[in-house]
Design brief:
The chain is an all-alpha fold. The protein has one domain: MetI-like fold (Orthogonal Bundle), CATH 1.10.3720.10. Helix content is 76%, strand content 3%. It contains 12 helices and 2 strands; from the N terminus they run αββααααααααααα. It has a two-stranded antiparallel ribbon with strand order 1-2. β1 and β2 form a beta hairpin. It is globular and about 75 Å long.
Length: 288
């Protein structure tokens, strides 16, 4: 029996390492090598240029616009989802026996992003969309996706509507692990809702939710399907995100070398942001 157990353990570890190599290590090494090349498929060009692709990134205005769009989208949606997710989680926590409430909150997150974005695109259509008609009753016009300001606003609103339930679930899971005796002790000391939230709930939830928040922020940084389906990156590149620009260079212009350099450069940038975020969360937890 022990021999069989060891065999299955070795087999599972081998398969895990194999999948990791095939789907993570090999593609990354391939991209890293290609980033030092001029590799344009339709011209059949493949030439070693060392850091030329990376130097071009520094002067590529389209890259910095897409990076700016990704950053502002991530930060704005992240902050809104953090607040709303906490409120939703607190409501669920206080009404744990209400199954309908939990199911209704989780539904938007369960919808496929592409289908959801397409539905919103139809509802925001200039000619027959129901949302512009509702806004017209309040004399609010030009809120269409063709407006570069409103296109970005709608992208944030839709992402918040869809992803806030995920944050709420993470908060709720953290709340479930808090010892209820702490609240009883706080009530004896005549603590109110403010004390419950800022003295007990948030300090004890930081370790559990920090990884979830980091995951959410990184996901927002690499969002592709929502702007791709909703606006196509327009108008005037106001909603073009970083993954969309990389996709455009790879599949539209077939410039494998530059797209690979963009990918590596972006990975390094996002990795630095992740390290900074984790250090801030660690210091915040120590402060608590």
């Amino acid at each position: 029996m022990k021999g069989k157990s060891y065999f299955f353990i070795i087999l599972i570890n081998f398969l895990t390492m194999l999948l990791l190599f095939v789907f993570v290590v090999y593609p990354f090494v391939k991209i890293l090598i290609s980033s030092f090349l001029i590799e344009i498929i339709y011209l059949d060009v493949r030439k070693f240029v060392l850091f030329d692709n990376y130097r071009y990134i520094l002067t590529d205005s389209n890259y910095w616009v897409s990076l700016y769009n990704s950053l502002r989208f991530s930060i704005i949606s992240f902050l809104i989802e953090f607040v709303l997710g906490f409120i939703l989680a607190f409501i669920i926590w206080k009404n744990e026996n209400n199954k309908f409430l939990r199911i209704s909150i989780i539904l938007p997150w369960a919808l496929p992003t592409a289908i959801m974005a397409l539905s919103w695109r139809f509802m925001l259509n200039e000619e027959y969309g129901i949302i512009p008609k509702i806004f017209s009753f309040f004399n609010i016009e030009n809120i269409f996706l063709s407006n570069f300001v409103w296109a970005f606003i709608w992208m944030v609103i839709i992402d918040v509507w869809k992803t806030t339930p995920f944050i709420a679930i993470m908060f709720y899971s953290a709340f479930k692990n808090i010892n209820k005796e702490l609240f009883e002790a706080l009530s004896i000391e005549k603590g109110n809702l403010y004390h419950q939230i800022f003295w007990v709930i948030l300090p004890l939830s930081i370790p559990a939710i920090s990884s979830a928040l980091l995951f959410r922020f990184l996901y927002a940084m690499v969002v592709f399907d929502l702007p791709f389906v909703l606006t196509g990156g327009g108008p005037a590149n106001s909603t073009k995100t970083l993954p969309m620009y990389i996709y455009e260079n790879f599949f539209k212009y077939l410039d494998v070398g530059y797209a690979s350099a963009l990918t590596v450069f972006s990975i390094i940038f996002i990795w630095i942001i992740s390290i900074i975020f984790l250090k801030l969360m660690k210091k915040l937890y120590r402060f608590q």
